[in-house]
Amino acid sequence: MPHITTIANNKGGVGKSHLTVQLAAALARRGLRVLVVDLDPQANTTRRLGIEIDPQNAIVTMSEVIKSGEDGAGESAVLACGWVDSEGQPTPESELIDVLPSRYDLINRESEAAVLGAVRRLRRALTGWIDDYDVVLIDTRPDLGHLVQMAFAAADTILIPTDPAYDSIEAAIRVRDFVERHAVDLVNPDLRVAGVVVTRRKPTAEHDFQIQGIEEQFGDLVWSLKGPVHWPDGGVTVNPAYISEWSRFTEADAAAASLNSYNDRNSRKTVALYDALASRFIDELIRTGARA
Ligand SMILES: Nc1ncnc2c1ncn2[C@@H]1O[C@H](COP(=O)(O)OP(=O)(O)OP(=O)(O)O)[C@@H](O)[C@H]1O
Ligand SMILES: [Mg+2]
């Protein structure tokens, strides 16, 4: 069985979708087979993984999967990651990444929270057919509503990305408290926060101050990427500790591309950071078999 991780923060714009997409790519570079579930009606992750949804030519998306409520329903919606090389062939990363895509109308499932058992529908949709994947990553909306609760009910662990800003940190704490309080209500009592990933870090005194706060709040749960991060130039190993605010990250998201598709020094730095993050993920959640 794969390890299932939900990416969540009760704050928008902290890099949840970015982390989902580029961590999937980094895990694929390590040879792992990854299923990405886009459970956000914004569908940013779906687009960034190279999947274009033609409104005139409807395909099965998570909206229909959740609506059906059937065991194994997700299998009918699986698409391959759409990243291709300059010859139009799937890249080595994309060959190991599948996607359960989202569309704006997934929001219609939000109002079904009162239906008996609806919170377990994602878990049921994933039963019986995901054994060949090593990892499932579920991207979520920036709230703690029904769609996010479905993602919590389906997961073994939660990864919380947060930028070093007061409101984002408070929102990360709300996720942790929500899980502690409601894991049993979600019929998933062993659900736990596996890590907090600091994103969008700028070299400012304010960010340093807020990072101290994150470390005080979350302690060892902070995935500080404490090396070794192998930089591309000269084999020097340094310790960048956190994911920086770099325009290359935004560029890759806009272009719906893997960081690995750029062949320059900046890109190799971004890839090195995500490779370090993937190593941490594998060490903590895959090698130790830390399933719930
Ligand atoms: N480390 C980073 N450096 C620079 N830009 C970043 C970084 N991480 C994310 N971004 C950019 O910030 C914006 C918000 O990121 P993203 O969409 O991943 O956040 P999100 O948490 O998924 O937002 P939402 O809550 O709306 O789903 C995007 O334009 C993304 O490209
Ligand atoms: Mg998002």
UniProtKB/TrEMBL annotation:
Could you tell me which residue ranges the AAA domain spans?
4-182
Q: Which PANTHER family match?
A: P-LOOP CONTAINING NUCLEOSIDE TRIPHOSPHATE HYDROLASE, PARA FAMILY PROTEIN CT_582
What SUPFAM superfamilies has UniProt attached to this entry? P-loop containing nucleoside triphosphate hydrolases
The protein in question is named: Chromosome partitioning protein
Q: Which InterPro entries does the entry mention?
A: AAA_dom, DNA_Partitioning_ATPase, P-loop_NTPase
What Gene3D superfamilies does this protein's entry cite?
Answer: P-loop containing nucleotide triphosphate hydrolases
Protein's organism: Herbiconiux ginsengi
Domain of life of the source: Bacteria
Q: Which CDD domains match?
A: ParAB_family (cd02042)
